[in-house]
Automatic annotation (TrEMBL):
All copies of domain DUF306, residue ranges: 163-264
Pfam families: META
Protein known as: META domain-containing protein
InterPro entries attached to this UniProt entry: DUF306_Meta_HslJ, HslJ-like_sf, Hsp_HslJ-like
PANTHER family, alphabetized: DUF306 DOMAIN-CONTAINING PROTEIN, HEAT SHOCK PROTEIN HSLJ
Organism field: Robiginitalea aurantiaca
Length: 268
C-alpha cells in the first residue's frame, strides 16, 4: 500500500521533470528566435555591384607574382589581389592602330586602374599557353605610386553561343538540300572554343576566335567527299569570312564587311 510520503515523492519527481521539459522548450524557443533574428535583421554587406553577379565576364586573366585575378564584364571590372578586391564600372577600351592591343583606363574617386591586353602567345607558370598578355597598373587615388601586375588571359566565349545551330538562310535566301541530305549545321562548344558539324555534304570542324561582338571561324577542316551544287562552297566561304555576330529570337546571325549574312536557328 502506498503511503502519503510515497505520493509526495512521486509528485516532486513529476514536477521536477515537467519543469526541466518546460525549461528546455523555453531555451529551444529562445535559440530559434535568435537564429531568425540573426538571419533577417542584419543582411550580409558587399561592395560588389549587383550587376557583376548577373553578367558573365567576357575576359579573365591571372598572375602569380604577386597573385591576382581579373574579370571584365559588360557592367564592370573586378581586380582581386591578396590584399583587396577592387570593383569599377566598365569602360570602352582604346585600341592601338597597328596591333591588337586594348587599353582600359578607369578613374574613380578612390581608384585609378590601367589595363593593357596584348594579343600575343603568353605562357603561365603552369606552362599553359594563353593568347593574351595582360599588364595592370593600379593605385588608390591617395597613393602616388602604382602597383604593377603582369600575367596572361583569354576571352570567354559568349555562353549563348554554346548550342546547336542549323543554317536557315544564306544571303537572304532559304536553304534547299537534296533529299536524304542534312541542312548545314554546327555545334559550338564554349569550353574548348571549337565547333563541329556538317556542310550538308562533308563533316567539318574548326576553332573559334572571340571578342565581344566579334566572332571568327578559323582552322576549318572538312572531309573530302565530292559534293554536287554550290551550297558547300558558298557556305564555307561565308563562314570563314565571318567577323560579326548577333543573337536574338533563337537566331544566330553572322556577317562580314561585305554584308554576307548567314542566319542559323537554334535547335534543342
Amino acid at each position: 500500500m502506498c503511503t502519503p510520503r510515497y505520493f509526495l515523492v512521486l509528485f516532486w519527481m513529476l514536477s521536477a521533470c515537467y519543469g526541466c521539459m518546460e525549461a528546455k522548450k523555453s531555451k529551444d524557443h529562445e535559440m530559434a528566435e535568435k537564429a531568425i533574428v540573426s538571419q533577417t535583421s542584419e543582411p550580409v554587406r558587399s561592395n560588389r555591384p549587383a550587376q557583376m553577379t548577373e553578367n558573365n565576364p567576357y575576359f579573365h586573366a591571372t598572375g602569380s607574382t604577386p597573385q591576382w585575378s581579373l574579370n571584365i564584364s559588360q557592367t564592370g571590372i573586378e581586380l582581386t589581389t591578396k590584399q583587396d578586391t577592387i570593383y569599377t564600372p566598365h569602360v570602352q577600351p582604346d585600341r592601338a592602330m597597328d596591333a591588337n592591343v586594348k587599353r582600359y583606363r578607369v578613374i574613380t574617386e578612390s581608384t585609378e586602374l590601367i589595363i593593357e591586353i596584348n594579343q600575343s602567345a603568353f605562357s603561365s607558370d603552369s606552362d599553359k599557353m594563353y593568347p593574351y598578355k595582360v599588364t595592370i597598373r593600379y593605385r588608390a587615388t591617395e597613393n602616388p605610386d602604382f602597383t604593377n601586375f603582369e600575367g596572361c588571359g583569354s576571352y570567354i566565349l559568349d555562353y549563348r553561343l554554346h548550342d546547336i545551330w542549323v543554317l536557315e538562310s544564306l544571303n537572304g535566301k532559304g536553304i534547299a538540300v537534296p533529299e536524304g541530305r542534312e541542312l548545314p549545321h554546327m555545334e559550338i562548344n564554349r569550353e574548348s572554343n571549337e565547333f563541329l558539324g556538317t556542310t550538308s555534304c562533308n563533316q567539318m570542324r574548326g576553332k573559334l576566335f572571340f571578342e565581344p561582338e566579334l566572332l571568327r571561324f578559323t582552322d576549318v577542316i572538312t572531309t573530302r567527299k565530292m559534293c554536287p551544287g554550290p551550297l558547300e562552297a558558298e557556305f564555307l566561304k561565308a563562314l570563314q569570312s565571318t567577323i560579326h555576330y548577333t543573337l536574338g529570337e533563337n537566331r544566330l546571325r553572322l556577317s562580314n564587311p561585305n554584308g554576307v549574312e548567314m542566319v542559323f536557328k537554334k535547335v534543342d
